[in-house]
Design brief:
Blueprint: H1 3-6, E1 9-10, E2 16-20, E3 23-27, E4 32-36, E5 41-46, E6 49-54, H2 61-83, E7 86-93, E8 98-102, E9 105-109, E10 116-118, E11 124-129, E12 132-137, H3 140-153, E13 163-166
Antiparallel strand pairs: 1-6, 2-3, 3-4, 5-6, 7-12, 7-13, 8-9, 9-10, 11-12
């Protein structure tokens, strides 16, 4: 049984929830999100809480149990996103490596001939302070995806640690080649 799925989701007063035709729509102060719900999962709103339960079917009971916790987490993240928002911080290390905002877009100079430009999608905001980039928005999946795209532009390498990494990420360092002295 799902331990996560059993927990009710508390809905704040400034969040509006609509469940129509197998789709849940969450709107709050930061934005609006929508998610299709699998037909093996049922949603019920009671006393300012959302209860997620699997629909009991004889076929594929394991799939409905697996989806139970997933949809509970997705809905909880939607509510958190429209009230507080999400953010990911990335750090840039390396001599001559720079990051700058070009309007809303991000421009990375990370050792390539041409700078890498990353477009800012709707609902996401970039901020830059020295060598720290912050990606923030109300959709957790979109914030994580854009942060992964930025990191993939120049992933931190294991010898000198140059490149882009998440804040707090530890880069496993490798030793360089050792010179063997010639004996006569």
């Amino acid at each position: 049984m799902s331990r996560i799925g059993k927990k009710p989701i508390i809905v704040p007063e400034n969040v509006k929830i609509d469940i129509v035709d197998g789709e849940i729509k969450v709107s709050g102060p930061l934005g609006n999100l929508a998610q299709r719900i699998d037909r093996q999962i049922s949603l019920e709103i009671k006393d300012g809480q959302i209860l997620v339960t699997p629909v009991k079917k004889d076929y594929l009971p394991t799939k409905s149990r697996a989806l139970w916790g997933l949809y509970r987490s997705l809905i909880s993240n939607m509510i958190t996103g429209v009230t507080k928002g999400f953010e990911k911080k990335l750090e840039l290390e390396g001599v001559g490596y720079r990051v700058a905002l070009d309007g809303k877009d991000l421009t990375l100079n990370v050792g390539f001939t041409l700078p890498v430009k990353i477009k800012c999608p709707e609902g996401v905001k970039f901020t830059v302070e020295k060598n720290v980039m912050t990606v923030s928005g109300f959709d957790k999946a979109q914030v994580g995806q854009i942060a992964a795209i930025i990191r993939a532009a120049k992933k931190a390498e294991p010898y000198k640690g140059k490149g882009i990494k998440y804040a707090g990420e530890k880069i496993r360092r490798k030793e360089g080649k050792k010179v063997v002295s010639a004996k006569k």
